[in-house]
Each structure stands twice: as structure tokens, then as C-alpha cells.
Amino acid sequence: MRLHFKLFLVGVLLSELGAVGTQFLSIPPSARDLIYFNSAWRNPSLLNQVNLVPELSLAYGNWLAGVQTFGFRWKGQIKNGSGGIDIRYVGLDDMELRPNKPTAKPLGLYAAYGASAKGTYSWRKGSLQLGVGLKLLNFQIYQEKSNGTALDFGLGWQPADKIQFNISALNLGKMGKMISELPELPRRYIGSIIYNQSKYKYFGAVESNSYVKNPIYYVGGNGRFKNLLFGTTTMISKGVKSISGGVGIQFGIYSVTYGFQWGDQHLGMPQMIDISIRLP
Q1: Which residues of 98-213 form beta strands (DSSP E)?
Q2: DSSP output for 227-253
Q3: Cβ atoms of residues 248 and 260 within 8 Å
Q4: Which of 27, 33, 76, 154 could cross-link to 54 by cystine, CB 3.0-4.6 Å?
Q5: This prediction's pTM
Q6: CA 185 to CA 220: how far, in whole Å?
């Protein structure tokens, strides 16, 4: 395949399949991340397993445009801090490559996917909670691949019993070249404030995303009633609105969680489900 056609093809696929380019990093990896906005996925300092038993979980979901996502997660206490391992895959299979004019058969079939392996560690220092995450990244579109690494940083500060401030910087790194193009990571900077009222929490947040021109605003809450947990988040940016949330149930050492997201762009309703087990 000639170089100029490969550049054109990869450029088109990257623009049309952002979810399985580097933008797969902006897809929540689990239903719990749809229920809890302030999770370790958005801020590694919020990983807290101190004095808690280790936990294993599996996640599966259908995102927009038929994108499927699978995830494996472990978290537990490591010395005086908390550690976590997250492995995930986001992809599309059997995609058809067609020219601009109608044809009876496609020119070929191809797959597009993104995968990551992440290690996270958080610890407390005085009134501050700190966290860092290291991600190994890989994605493929058509026959072209790219690998890279990225760092996540998080900080939490609780000045009063019911108030907490969080800031995080995510996806700070780079990818390898894809032909002559250098894919960009979706750098995200998030700040949030949480009001903790017994079993219920309410929050507001703002995000700056390198892939989005305007700020993204969030507001919502989550809570627990007996063995049920639930939460919802409203997201607003210029021209885009969405609502995400879900519900989970815990019975013994097992828990099942369901999450969804609905937007005003009428591109479908992503859904996810997690199954978790607490280890003895």
C-alpha cells in the first residue's frame, strides 16, 4: 500500500473511530465508575483499600457505535497504602472497509482496538491523600499499531469532616508513531469538591480535556442503603449533555453493579455490568 494512501486511510479511521484510538482512555472502565464520579479512575488518590480486604472484579460493557469493553481489576492494601491493577480492552471487530461509491462487497474487514495495563498506588501524608498511576498503552487501527506510556497523578485534601477537594492530571505521556503521525493522548485535568453527608455524597466538578475545546461540568451524588448502592452524574459541555449512573447490590462477599449513560446526541445508550468478589 502506497504511503500517501496509508496516511489518508489512517487519518480517516482515527477521525471516525476516536473511541478505539487514544480516546478509549476517556471511556469509563466499569459500571462503578459510572455510579461514582470520584473514583480512582479519575483520581488515583481516591483508591483507598487500607484496612479493607482485597477485591477482584470483572467488567463488561457496550459503548457507543457498538464498541465493546472488557476489564479486569484488583485492589488491595500494600504496606501502609493502597494498590491496584487494571487491565482493559476496548474494540470493534469485523469493520468493513469500503470506497466512497456503493459496492456489493467491502474491500476488506479489519479490527480496531485499544488496550491498557495500569498500576496505581495511593498513600496518606498528613491531611493529604496522594496517588499515582502508570499505564502501558497499545492500540491498533486497520493494520497500524502504536504503543505508549502515560502517568496519572491525583491529590485529595479534606479541610473539614464533610468537605473534600480533589485535583488530578491524567494521561500525561506519549504514543509511538503510526506511520508518520504521532497520536495524541486525551490529557485530562479534573477538579472536584465533595460534600459528605453520612451515607450520601454530593459533588461538583470541572474538567479540561485536550480533545474538547470547552470546559466540561459535572454535578451529582451517590449513596448507600443497606446492601444497595446507587449514584448519578449530570455532565454538561457546550452542545453536549448526558446523564450517567447506576445501581449495585452486595450479598456476602459478592457484588453486582449495573451502570448506564444517556446523552442528547441520540447515539445509543452505553451500558456496563461488573461482578466483584472480596477475597478472604
Answers
A1: 108-125, 128-141, 144-160, 163-175, 188-197, 200-209
A2: TEEEEEEEEEETTEEEEEEEEEEEETT
A3: no
A4: 76
A5: 0.87
A6: 27
CB atoms < 10 A from the CB of 114, how many? 25
CATH 2.40.160.40 fits 3-278, yes or no: yes
Q: Which three cell numbers stand for residue 234?
A: 449530570
Where are the chain's structural domains? 3-278
